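Need tokens for this chain, all 148 residues.
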Amino acid sequence: MRLLLLFIIGLTFGFGGGFLVGGGMGPSSHDHAGHGDMDHDMSDLLEWEGTAPDLSIMLMPDMGDAANLHIMADGFTFTPETVNTDPTQGTGHAHIYIDGVKLARTYSNWFHIDHIETGQVIRVTLNADNHAEWGKDGQPLAVEITAP
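Here are the structure tokens for all 148 residues:
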């Protein structure tokens, strides 16, 4: 009985402490409010120095109305292990938008989209570990295609 009680107390304090540290004192200071659309403040744009990555995307049909999005970013490395840290040029993740609404972020060059309709616009931006968009000459490093 004593072991069970100690186990419950440990879980309670372990979960509660982890929740407080992760939610309130974590390394991210980036405000995610308003990320439902692409109305980004360009002051969040991080200027890429030198030659920007060669970025392109391809949409491959899957079963039904699903598709697989292939992100080809030569000169860029996806780094899930360093999310919410200071930016390092050449690394980060991508944000995916459909018709201007943020769908997800991805830490890989492949992403499965459950539902896509003909004519919808898919936009992919390259983002730093602190979630700011990478840009070149004041323009986001982004690419978009229209679903066939």
